[in-house]
Amino acid sequence: MNASNDFTLFPQLPQELRLKIWNSTIEPRTVRIEWSPYLSQCTTPDNPIILRVSHESREEGLRTYRPAFATTPGSKPVVYANFSLDTVDFDWVIPNSQLSHFTHGELNTALKDVKSLTIRDVFLQLELVESWRSLLAEFSELEVLIVSNCLAEPDRPLISNPEAMEEDIRTSIFMAGEDENSDAMPKLVCLKSGYECSTHWWFKQCNEWCPRRMGRGSGESEKPNWLSIFSSVSNAAMGYSIETNI
User: Please, which residues bridge with residue 66 across strands?
Assistant: First the structure.
């Protein structure tokens, strides 16, 4: 007879210790958000384990995680997240196929709560339709933007005139960001190759030269669209990499 691997004495542990064990499962996660045509709402396969074990664990987990991405004011969300901890990854294989669900109402409002976002590289290309770019701009409180599925090789280009490049990128940042308001720009991360990416090498300069996002949302003036800064800096940076042998 095989001994069971279940720890059957767990309910007999002191409550303080049990709660510490439950809380040890809380850590930063990537939460994949999918659209369910059947339910007509967002779903996820990544709800926290702490919410699914027992009544006690769920009660403790709800101190950290909240329902998110409601479809309508009266709907009951099935996604739970903590936007201070979690990175959101929308399962937008073809973005325009789900675009209409996020352009208005409760889902559109929820985008403003996201602080860390993973997005496929192709969705940031400058040729994207205006409706998609407008949707990306709704992530107005982003602090970190992680670019995934990058097809570029990890081969940082050589820049023939780094001084001119530096000046052009700085100018692009502050012109697009309206001087002191360039704190709207999130920190940029290439998931595949980091700063050595032949396409996203300029993330390093942008992260260094954009003011850190301290005190965001506290000013009375409207913050600029982070996507406009991204586009301006990308154009300036890639102009230099095109002139060199990558």
Answer: 81
Instruction: Copy the structure tokens of residue 117.
Output: 């976002």
DSSP code for 115: -
pLDDT band at 23 (very low <50, low <70, confident <90, very high): very high
* 180-200 residue pLDDT tens: 444 567 899 998 888 888 888
Quick check: 117 and 84 in contact, CB under 8 A? no
| Whole-number pLDDT of residue 169 | 78
Q: Hunting for tokens 């995934």 — which residue is that?
A: 148
Q: What is the dihedral of CA 129, 130, 131, 133, to 10 degrees?
A: 90
pLDDT tens digit sequence for 203-245: 888 888 776 543 344 444 455 567 777 887 888 777 776 544 4
Using DSSP's 3-state secondary structure scheme, residue 150 falls into coil
Phi–psi pair at 178, nearest 5 degrees: 55, 55
Question: Six-digit token pair at 221?
Answer: 């003036």
Residue 40 has pLDDT above 90, yes or no: no
Looking only at the bridges linking them, the beta strands covering 66-68 and 41-43 are unpaired
The residue among 137, 167, 27 whose CA lies nearest residue 85 is 27
Query: How large is the angle between the packed helices 162-176 and 226-242, nearest 10 degrees?
Result: 160
* Phi/psi of residue 43, nearest 5 degrees: -135, 175
Other CB atoms within a 10 A radius of the CB of residue 202 amount to: 23
Please compute, for residue 15, the number of CA atoms within 13 A of its CA located in the half-sphere on the CB side.
3
Question: What's the pLDDT score for residue 160?
Answer: 65
Q: Map out the domains of the chain as residue ranges.
A: 23-149
